[in-house]
Amino acid sequence: MTSLATINRVTADPIEAAYIQVYLWAEAVKKAGTTDVDKVREAAKGLEYRAPEGLVKIEAENQHLWKPVRIGEVQEDGLIKEIWSTKEAVKPDPYLKSYAWAKDLSN
């Protein structure tokens, strides 16, 4: 029998995102002690999880995820070769608040 840890498999960001969501939701439910949406949402603030990609965290301010950033290059075989990445998770900026060029986008 072959160990799953020794099998070289390809995955995609949406698959990993779904995987992370299930674990973070389960942790928030445990912390809240209920599946009540408002209580779970509150319990999720600041939750951290060691995901396959590294440590991720739910930003309390906007419920988006701190994640490592990776830049890749598509190869001839369709696979993506990582050419750059951050060493740590990056704070989410879903509303482009930290970019001067984006200040007028929401008006």
Task: Tell me the radius of gyration.
Answer: 17 Å
The total of helices stands at: 2
Q: What is the helical fraction, as a range of percent?
A: 25-40%
* Domain count: 1
**Main beta sheet:** 3 strands, antiparallel
Write the H/E string, N to C.
HHEEEEE
* Poorly predicted ranges: none
Average pLDDT value? 89
- How much of the polypeptide forms β-strand, as a percent range? 15-25%
The assigned structural class equals alpha+beta
Question: Distance between termini?
Answer: 59 Å
Strand order across the biggest sheet? Answer: 1-2-3
Q: How many DSSP E strands? A: 5
Coarse shape: flat
Main features:
107 residues, three-stranded antiparallel sheet, 2 helices, Peripla_BP_I, Leucine-binding protein domain-containing protein
Summarize the entry for a quick read.
With 107 residues, the protein is α+β, with helices and mostly antiparallel strands. It contains 2 helices and 5 strands. It has one domain.
Q: What does this protein look like?
A:
By secondary structure, the protein is of the alpha+beta class. The chain has one domain (about 5-95). About 25% of the residues lie in helices and about 20% in strands. The protein has helices spanning about 15-30, 35-45; strands at about 50, 55-60, 65, 70-75, 80-85. The strands form two sheets. A three-stranded antiparallel sheet has the order 1-2-3, with helices on one face. Helix 1 (about 15-30) packs across helix 2. The radius of gyration is 17 Å and the shape is flat. The relative contact order is 0.11.
